[in-house]
Design a protein that fits this description.
42% of the residues lie in helices and 7% in strands. It has 283 residues and is mainly alpha-helical. A hairpin with a 2-residue loop joins strand 3 and strand 4. Helix 5 packs antiparallel against helix 9 and helix 8 crosses helix 9. The radius of gyration is 62 Å and the shape is elongated.
Length: 283
């Protein structure tokens, strides 16, 4: 170039290379970021920028370890699914819990019952066994029912003028027969102080059969007498029940009932109290 009388042009500045710079002492060196410096000489990111990684780094780079949480166990230390399954299998289920068997419960109940029974004294074998009240009531009811069946089965209902005016009326015949048979059996067997034998019962049955023979069917005389003997036997059984009981059992009176009623079986009393009601028939 041609030079003139003005300022001289300054020489061109040479590019500064990094390896020609003098090294900075170690004490004065500032900590630099682990990231490489920008090519355009941009300012290094601040400490807050260093702490918070960019989105790209958080997505694709490694996640920095947290200072607040402890080290997370690796997959090798974490229990596997098979191990937890085995623990559940070791735990007993509700269906496999042991419950007392029925035989054990029955044995326990048996011992409890035996312990309760042991508190009471055993009944001696030679102790007197009294009949129950129900047995006496049942025998008295059986006697009254069979007397009713006897009157209906062996004596006719037709009009007949016989020697007994009470039996000649067909409306009252069966009621009077029932009443008389019951009176004789109760007086001669049930309430009798005499121990009647089988022969005594047969003689009494034969006497009853003769009394009502005029009003009975003529083709079953032997059967009728045998049935009367059976009624006497039931009366004897009733006597044994009543006499062996510690309470006082007896029959009520045969009081006449006013009106068109006939008593066919008296009241049964226990210690002067009614145990079975009387039986009456309206005529």
């Amino acid at each position: 170039m041609c030079s003139s009388g003005g300022d001289r042009a300054s020489p061109p500045r040479e590019a500064t290379r990094l390896h020609t710079l003098e090294p900075i002492p170690e004490a004065n060196r500032r900590p630099q970021s682990s990231k490489p410096q920008s090519r355009h000489g941009e300012r290094a990111p601040s400490r807050h920028a260093e702490r918070a990684p960019s989105r790209a780094t958080s997505r694709h780079g490694e996640r920095p370890p947290s200072s607040r949480r402890g080290e997370r166990p690796s997959s090798s230390k974490r229990p596997s699914t098979s191990a937890s399954t085995s623990r559940k299998a070791d735990r007993p289920s509700s269906s496999s819990r042991s419950r007392p068997s029925s035989s054990r419960e029955q044995t326990s109940r048996y011992h409890d019952d035996m312990a309760r029974r042991a508190k009471f004294e055993a009944i001696p074998e030679d102790a007197v066994q009294y009949p129950e009240d129900q047995a006496i009531n049942r025998s008295a009811a059986e006697l009254a029912t069979l007397i009713d069946q006897h009157a209906e089965s062996y004596y006719f209902h037709d009009d007949y003028n016989g020697n007994d005016p009470d039996l000649s009326d067909p409306r009252t015949r069966h009621a009077i027969i029932r009443q008389r048979i019951a009176k004789i059996i109760i007086r001669e067997v049930v309430e009798s102080a005499k121990n009647n034998s089988d022969d005594d019962l047969r003689r009494l049955a034969a006497s009853l059969a003769r009394e009502f023979r005029e009003y009975a069917y003529g083709n079953n005389e032997e059967q009728r007498e045998n049935h009367l003997c059976e009624l006497c036997s039931i009366g004897l059984e009733l006597r044994d029940h009543m006499s062996s009981h510690p309470a006082t059992w007896e029959f009520g009176t045969w009081d006449e009932i006013k009106g068109r009623y006939i008593m066919v079986f008296p009241t049964l009393l226990k210690n002067d109290e009614q145990a079975a009601a009387r039986r009456i028939i309206k005529i």
